[in-house]
Amino acid sequence: ALKAKELLEKHNLNIKEVDDETVVIRTLEKKRSHAKLQSIAEILRTFFVYPVLNHGKGILYLEIIGDRTNVEAADYVAQFLDKHFEILWKEGKKKRSFLKGIASKNAFFKGLAKGYQCQKKPSERALIRIEKDLIRRVQMYYPNLAASRHNPLRFENAIKAGEDYGKKLKIREGIKKHSSPLLLWKNL
C-alpha cells in the first residue's frame, strides 16, 4: 500500500473507484506443498491479493486472485521470492551454524514470512474493506474453498533467524514487460 501511494504521488495519478476486473493467474507450480510455497503465499497477502494453493494431478499450483494491477505485482513478487528465499537460506546457513536440515529450512521460511509481515502494517479499516472484497472475488471462482492449517514448527531459533531476515527483506522492482500474464479467468 505504501509503495502504491508512493508511485501514485510520483506519477501524479489519482485513485478512482471503479469496478475492477477480477483476474486469476497461476504463478508457481510445484510437485507438492511445502513451507516455502506457503510462506510466499502469506507474503502475497500483503499485496492485496488472495493466494490459493490448488492441487491438480501430481502438481500444486499457487494461484493469485485479485484485481489486475495487484495480481501482476504479486506474480512478480512470487517469482522473485521463489528464487530469493533460497539465497537468504544459504546466507543464513553461513552466518548461523544451527541452521541445518530440511525442518530448520522450513522453519526459516516461515520466519521470513512472519518477519516480512511485521514490517507491513496498513490501516485496519482499509484492510478490512479490501479483505471483504477479496473474499467476494475468491468465492466467485472457488465457492467451496476451505482453509487449512499446518502444525506449528518447533525450531524457534530458525524461525527467529528467518524473522530477522524477513524484517529486512526488500522486493526489488522488476522491469515491466509489454505482455500480460496468462489469464485463467477474467470477470468484467
Structure in words:
The chain is α+β, with helices and mostly antiparallel strands and 188 residues long. Helix content is 52%, strand content 15%. It has a four-stranded antiparallel β-sheet. Strand 2 and strand 3 form a beta hairpin. It starts with a helix and ends with a strand.
Residue ranges: pLDDT <50 for 5 or more in a row? none
Task: Please work out how many helical segments DSSP would assign.
Answer: 6
What topology, given as strand order, has the largest sheet?
2-3-1-4
Helix content: 40-55%
**Mean pLDDT rating:** 80
What letter string, H or E per element, gives the SSE order? HEHEEHHHHE
**Cα end-to-end separation:** 24 Å
Strand content: 5-15%
Q: Which structural class best describes the helix and strand composition?
A: alpha+beta
Rg calc: 17 Å
Q: Count the E strands.
A: 4
Q: What's the overall geometry?
A: globular
Largest sheet: 4 strands, antiparallel
